[in-house]
Amino acid sequence: MKLWVSSPICSEDSNKMKAAIYTRVSTPDQAVNGESLDMQKERLIEYVKNHGWELYKAYEDGGFSGKNVNRPAFQKMMKDVEFKKFDILVVYKIDRLSRSVLDFHTTMKFLEKQNISFVSVTQQFDTTNSMGRLMLNILVDFANFEREINVDRSIDSYLQRLHKGIPSGAIPYGYRREEDGIAIVESEAIFVRELFSLALQGLSTNEISKKTGLTPYHVRSIITNPFYTGYLARRRDRFDKRIKENDWEWYQGQHKPIISVELFQQVAQKRQSKARVANTKYKAFFSHLIYCPKCKHNLSFHTRTKKTKIVFYYRCDPIKIDEKSCGQYLREEPLEVILSRQIDKVFKLQKPENNEKDDDSIIMIDRKIKRLVRLAEEEDVTVEEFKQRIEELKKQKALLLAHQITKLDYSKISEKLKTIISIYPYMTREEKSRLWHLLIIRIEACKSLVSVYWRGGGKYTFKHDRLAKNLKVLNTKGRSVVAAGGVVRSKSALFFKNIRQSRPSNKMLFAKSPINNEFIVSCLNFIN
């Protein structure tokens, strides 16, 4: 992949309009061996001269797709647009600038904002009127449609080759292409068999990497590649998303195998069993809860060893190859401490109003019933009137009694819920994970703010830099705390101890926020 950017070209006439030209080809082969870049450049320079403009600079992207704007020369050009270093942007065709409708519109709006004109040499457009802008947008739509058609054709061609057992793209280590097909490189095949042998012994990719000198990435790419079994597997769908290993579609290849299918499957089972053990050993507190609004996916859980301590953290990773992400990073321990301070507030209850009217009403109903009985004995009321009045009074009394029966001892409920914070330091990682998933709907993490949405109702927001501040405090509070029974607890246990000591005394309380009964019952079941 090569990039050519010419230096600015000065002109003797300073009153001339400055024009910049932009050229692009999609593949490196076109850029190096083809004539399309030179042809575009010659046509554009000639067009600029014919119109009496000054050529400011030529921006050239060789071997970059027009589906996005991740192109070095394009980015440099847009920076020059920002500082209005030229007056006109000239391209050979509009799809040379972009094949994405959204990117094209964004670019055009930015050019209009900077009062820079746009010219397509082979497609004459006047963007100063509505009809010209409409035709321009229609052409961009067709360019995008053409790109999608080409993508579909490429996928269909790939699937056809896959069914025939013909590989596409680069050949993996251990093989080489020859005129009559794909042959095994025996010196490399010995090394490949050694890697699978080490993996079958239960060694991790990092351990194999240390033994062989390869990077963990290359070790993983070899021991997870079914190509070495003589088969081809479809590992990505039409949208370039990874297909789960158990759902791969296998096709008989035209090349010879280096290892057996049975050995590959045994190694795969070893890897999967080790992954299950690792996931059980290090249960993430906030897995699938922390969401990045910018990248629109959840943060991934990671672990690393720092001296003798295992550090747990969450990071915004790209979920597709060649996809970018913001890469924000959240340490689990300070996040745990900050949210633990809010548990009491989630269960914050207030004392209900004393309502003695129900008792008075029940007494009045009893008196009315007795009076009706006396009147019935004295035959001052008819039997039908007596029955009707008695039924009405009984219904009123039943409703009042039911209301009293459904009253709960909120003092006991509050005491029960408050015990969560006192027993929290003694929970296992699995229990803590269950608790946080019970309390939290979602955590939205941005570069500056973190917002927590509680399942019981309410939202808690704090600045992102508080995590770093809490981490510094944690590092100054001692290495560990010995809890009851001689069990060594983490440094954050000191914070939980302080929270318990500073907790306000419980009173007869009632739900202040709209905490639903199902949520309270779930919390009580968790404690029990």
Summarize the structure.
With 528 residues, the protein is α+β, with helices and mostly antiparallel strands. The chain has helices spanning 28-32, 36-50, 72-82, 94-97, 101-113, 130-163, 186-200, 205-212, 216-223, 261-281, 332-340, 343-346, 357-377, 383-405, 410-423, 429-439, 465-475, 493-501, 517-527; strands at residues 3-5, 18-25, 54-62, 88-91, 117-120, 175-178, 181-184, 231-234, 249-252, 290-292, 297-298, 300-306, 309-315, 329-331, 349-350, 440-445, 449-454, 459-463, 481-482, 488-489, 510-511.
Layout of helices and strands, plus pairs?
Elements: E1 3-5, E2 18-25, H1 28-32, H2 36-50, E3 54-62, H3 72-82, E4 88-91, H4 94-97, H5 101-113, E5 117-120, H6 130-163, E6 175-178, E7 181-184, H7 186-200, H8 205-212, H9 216-223, E8 231-234, E9 249-252, H10 261-281, E10 290-292, E11 297-298, E12 300-306, E13 309-315, E14 329-331, H11 332-340, H12 343-346, E15 349-350, H13 357-377, H14 383-405, H15 410-423, H16 429-439, E16 440-445, E17 449-454, E18 459-463, H17 465-475, E19 481-482, E20 488-489, H18 493-501, E21 510-511, H19 517-527
Parallel strand pairs: 2-3, 2-4, 4-5, 10-16
Antiparallel strand pairs: 1-3, 6-7, 8-9, 10-11, 12-13, 13-14, 15-21, 16-17, 17-18, 19-20
Fold and architecture overview:
The chain has 19 helices and 21 strands. The protein is α+β, with helices and mostly antiparallel strands and 528 residues long. It has four domains: 3-150, Resolvase, N-terminal catalytic domain (Rossmann fold, 3-Layer(aba) Sandwich), CATH 3.40.50.1390; 175-281, Hect, E3 ligase catalytic domain fold (Alpha-Beta Complex); 291-346 and 411-527, no CATH class; 357-407, no CATH class. It has a five-stranded mixed beta sheet, with helices on both faces. A five-stranded mixed beta sheet has the order 11-10-16-17-18. A hairpin with a 5-residue loop joins β19 (481-482) and β20. The two termini are 63 Å apart. Residues 1-12 and 478-517 have low confidence and may be disordered.
